[in-house]
Amino acid sequence: MRRTLVKWLFATYLLGSGIVWSILILPLFPFVGRNGRYRLARLWCRAMVVMMRVITGVTCSVEGLEQLPEGPFIMLCRHESTWETLAFMALFPRRISFVFKRELERIPFFGWVLVGLDMVSLDRGSIRQAHQAVTRECAQKLALGDAVVIFPEGTRVPHDAPLKLASGGVRLACATKVPVVPVVHDAGKVWPAKGWPDRPGHIRVIVTPTLPLDCTIPQELNKLAQEQMDAGLAQLR
Known about the structure:
Elements: H1 2-25, H2 29-56, E1 58-63, E2 73-77, H3 83-91, E3 96-101, H4 110-116, E4 120-122, H5 127-143, E5 147-150, H6 168-176, E6 180-185, E7 201-207, H7 218-236
Parallel strand pairs: 1-7, 2-5, 2-6, 3-4, 3-5
Antiparallel strand pairs: 6-7
C-alpha cells in the first residue's frame, strides 16, 4: 500500500509540476535565448532530483566527472528509464543535447519545451534520411559546444539486459572528430523502463574514460565502448 502511494504521489508531482513549470517558462522562451531556455528547464530538472529524494527516498551520484573532456563530446549512454533524460540536465555541468524521437514534440507542454531547447530530433521514417539528418543536427550542436547524448541501444532496456550497441554514435564521432565518452548507470533498478519509482534506493552514474581520439574505425571504436560500458555495468550489479 505504501509503495503504491509513493509511486502515485511522485507521478502526480512530476506531471503536475512539469505542466505548471512549462506554462510559466514557455512565454519567456522568445526572450531569453538558447542558453536561457536551457537554464530555465534545468531548474525544474534540479527540483525533480530533490523531490525524488524527498518523496521516494531515491538519491543519486555521479562518479568520474573528471573524465569529461573540456570541449564538445558525444556521450554514449545506457537508456534504462525516464530518469536519465531528466536528471542528466541537473547532474552534468555541461549543456546536454539529447537525440530524441520526433514524436515527443507532439506531447503538450513537455514537447513544446523540448522544441524550445533546440536538441536533436529523430524522424524514424526513413533510416537513411534519419541518419543523415541526425548527423547534420548533431554536428551543429557539437559546433555550439554541446555534449550530445546518444542511446546506442535505440530504446529503453532493463538494467540486467545484455548490452547491445548500435554503431551510429561512434560513426558520428568518426565523422565529426570529437571525443566519445561511454556512460552507464543503474536507474532501471529503482525507476523501471515501464513504471514509476516506488521505494528508496541509490542511483549511481559512472562516467568511463574518453575513448582514444586516434581510433577512426567505427567497428573498433564500438568494441572499445562496449568493453568499457560492460566493465562499468559490472560495477553496478
